[in-house]
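User: Batch of two.

Assistant: Item 1 of 2:
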Amino acid sequence: MSSSKAQEIRVRIGPSPTGDPHVGTGYVSLFNYAFAKQQGGKFILRIEDTDQKRSSPESEQAILDSLKWLGINWDEGPDIGGPKGPYRQSERLELYREQVQKLVDSGHAYWCTCTPERLAEVRKRQLALKQPTGYDGHCREENHTAGVVRLRTPQDGQTVFTDALRGEIKIDNSEVDDQVLLKSDGFPTYHLANIVDDHFMGITHVIRGEEWISSTPKHILLYQFFGWDAPQFVHLPLLRNSDKSKVSKRKNPVSLEYFKEAGYLPEALLNFLGHMAFSFQDGREMYTLEEFVQEFKVERISLGGPVFDLKKLLWLNGRYLREKFSDTEFVSYIQKQLFSDNYLNQIIPLVKERVEKSEDFLEYADFFFKASVLTDPANYSLKSITEKRPLIKLYEALIEQIEALRPFDKDSLQATLRGFCEAEGLKTKELFMAIRWMVTGKKATPPLFETMAVLGRERCRTRMRQALGELKK
């Protein structure tokens, strides 16, 4: 993809701090970083925290730590700043409000006062008539001055844009609804903040996942209505499971924190993510981040559905382990990764009352170090729920709560699990024993809440999802 010599290349990623850092963030970051560095440009990190109910400082810090662990460093953003600050959208609200008012004044946006109940009825009716779902334009010709602000999309014609990998893409405007731009709480939606930020930050190339293709017409319309030049778009192929479904936490570990805690090397994970949509002309399997940057060309990105194959990642990680470390270095690595003073100091108070000789520690505390602790699925059953489907649904709801839990400590776990039992009418003793089996693979362990806190959210949720997978078979 060619670019003007006079124009500085500026790319960005915009993760939302609403959960754990996703492996997809690492994947998209790698390709943005490589393009920026090869072109002598800037790679910008922007925290898109407009979802205030779900955003948290802990999630933001986890994103920063995970990218640093991978070795992907940003030129502007949190911890560094930039021409206009650290780039957190929650700190740029006045800019968004100013810009959306310009759209209202020019007639390209309008205030809407439709209630959630009315919108639900509209959607219900559209589904019943097998019509496309979306806002029906009820407030288009009204003259409201409160509520939410919606984009006034054209009723006919097409919106056309060019993707660097796919060429010209045309989408009928009838498929683009009047998207909310500004919420009633004064915060922008992604679509508005994304465009305003990209313009004022001078973003020249938007490299993101292909799931955003269907939203691009909304973005193109906004650029046109504002009178701004649009950046060049590059939509990367989605990471997929072996069955071609989108990679998700329900089928595979997807948190960058999981891979860090599980003992994957950052070099191996980056190498693996690079393989997802790019290959070296000489066919090499292993390469450094610097070599990837030197070789990288946008036009050589493969659009074939990249399969997130954990077996391939394990193989690659094994090669890195064997080739990177001498025997002495390997000992130090294992000690740091598995038997650090910090980790052992958390475990010992929980197990030493049961240990009579050193060997007992290995037997009693092995689940603190194992990759998998799966047992007979019967251990995960509940007497009060005899049918499979309701049991699976119940565990899925519980795991969702555990994944969202912050802080992940003894008191929070106890409150969450006891509250879940009360809400679902479950006996605590029965559910807690099933959870114990899921996260430790044992019937007798140290106290459950303290044990889960030491294992950490990543191990607990991964093991619970593995156990749920066994129940689904």
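Item 2 of 2:
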Amino acid sequence: MPQRSMMKPLTLLLLTLFVGMVLGAAITGRVVQSRLAKYNNFLSEAGFAQIVMDVIEPESEVQRAKLLPILEETGQDIQDTKANARSDILLHYRELEAELLPILSQEQANRLQSWRDRVRLDGHSKR
């Protein structure tokens, strides 16, 4: 009988721990997702302008009208830099791959291809 009397509290404890782990993972995932969204918004033209505008808190509509074109231009520059950086990285990777492929076995080349597909170095991103 002592074993049976311990099963109920042990089951309850394990169930509580499981629920806690699931909730912790869900909350962590949501926080990471929120931070990524903020980061992606910061890198967009309109998002950058709005974030900086919120920080500055323009004192008048006249000041806001002067600030907006400057912030939008900088936001566009950031977008262009991001696009160019991705292209540059892809170019460097293709150069690396051209040097590596003659040295690699077919199995190694296949693993490299699988890795490239997983990290999406093929020019497509997970948006």
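The chain has a mean pLDDT of 84.
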